[in-house]
Amino acid sequence: MAREFSTPEQASVTDPSEMATSFGFRTVREGEKQDLVDDVFHKVASRYDLMNDLMSGGLHRLWKDAMVSSLRPPKSGAREWRHLDVAGGTGDIAMRTVERSNRTVMSTVCDINGSMLGVGKDRAAAAGLSQNIEFVLGNAEELPFPDKHFDAYTIAFGIRNVPQIDKALQEAHRVLKRGGRFMCLEFSQVDVPAFDKLYDLMSFHAIPKIGQVVTGDGDAYSYLVESIRKFPNQERFAQMIRTAGFERVTYRNYTGGIAALHSGWKI
Ligand SMILES: C[S@@+](CC[C@H](N)C(=O)[O-])C[C@H]1O[C@@H](n2cnc3c(N)ncnc32)[C@H](O)[C@@H]1O
């Protein structure tokens, strides 16, 4: 596919794949963004978990623990409880959810990238969790699951990579049962004045360099940092979740807003 870039004005609005979106700080057609994102994750998959630790100083583990503790999967196994983790990559959220349920619930990891899922499958097998976790190749914008199928939908550090966020949110709403919970963990807007300068320095200089050394691809990590800055802030994203039909939408910041956990219910 040709790597052309267009401005929002140039893009046609009749064909959704022609609508302009961002790939980091570049404006690209929506149809093109997914290919670019897929390239990034194919390249970094084998070093993705290590890079997460290096980039966040291990903080991503605490944020993910906090997410799953808020999700509160049932622990008794008395009733069936289905969990879907979209853009689930190497399986961090699914593995935590299953462990927290005393290995009683079933998690489905759905991701568009086979390389990321492959790493996840191996990790789940190594942890003895293959019985509880299935890995499904699929697009967040067109989930390969029936309506009203899941009790919980999670997505961690995934939604900013999806070209049509509104569509992904509508799909989340569709596949959840009534009474189902939506949770999204994502990088967000830092709200501590002095801290944001330090965070910028770290993000735009240190992270692409660490990425270059560890994965051999600094550009992939420039994309990841830039995509964080293009993502809507906490309030705007909460509004998008409401627009998709969720109710009782709330969020909480982690580490001064570096990350935020949004929650909503399908009522
Ligand atoms: C930053 S990783 C997050 C992985 C994992 N959730 C975590 O927290 O470690 C982003 C993931 O989003 C996936 N992704 C990107 N676009 C997607 C789409 N349209 N549908 C499903 N997954 C997508 C990528 O393949 C990648 O695995």
UniProtKB/TrEMBL annotation:
Entry EC number(s): 2.1.1.163, 2.1.1.201
Binding site residues for S-adenosyl-L-methionine: T90, D111, N139, A140
Catalysed transformations (reactions): a 2-demethylmenaquinol + S-adenosyl-L-methionine = a menaquinol + S-adenosyl-L-homocysteine + H(+); a 2-methoxy-6-(all-trans-polyprenyl)benzene-1,4-diol + S-adenosyl-L-methionine = a 5-methoxy-2-methyl-3-(all-trans-polyprenyl)benzene-1,4-diol + S-adenosyl-L-homocysteine + H(+)
S-adenosyl-L-methionine keyword on record: yes
EC class of the enzyme, as a word: transferase
Classification via Pfam families: Ubie_methyltran
GO molecular function annotation: 2-methoxy-6-polyprenyl-1,4-benzoquinol methyltransferase activity; demethylmenaquinone methyltransferase activity
Keyword terms, alphabetized: Menaquinone biosynthesis, Methyltransferase, S-adenosyl-L-methionine, Transferase, Ubiquinone, Ubiquinone biosynthesis
PROSITE patterns cross-referenced by the UniProt entry: SAM_MT_UBIE, UBIE_1, UBIE_2
Biological pathway: Quinol/quinone metabolism; menaquinone biosynthesis; menaquinol from 1,4-dihydroxy-2-naphthoate: step 2/2; Cofactor biosynthesis; ubiquinone biosynthesis
GO terms classed as biological process: aerobic respiration; menaquinone biosynthetic process; methylation
NCBIfam families for the chain: MenG_MenH_UbiE (TIGR01934), PRK00216.1-3 (NF001242)
Family assignment from sequence similarity: Belongs to the class I-like SAM-binding methyltransferase superfamily. MenG/UbiE family.
Described function: Methyltransferase required for the conversion of demethylmenaquinol (DMKH2) to menaquinol (MKH2) and the conversion of 2-polyprenyl-6-methoxy-1,4-benzoquinol (DDMQH2) to 2-polyprenyl-3-methyl-6-methoxy-1,4-benzoquinol (DMQH2).
Protein name: Ubiquinone/menaquinone biosynthesis C-methyltransferase UbiE
Lineage: Bacteria, Pseudomonadati, Pseudomonadota, Alphaproteobacteria, Hyphomicrobiales
Gene coding for it: ubiE_3
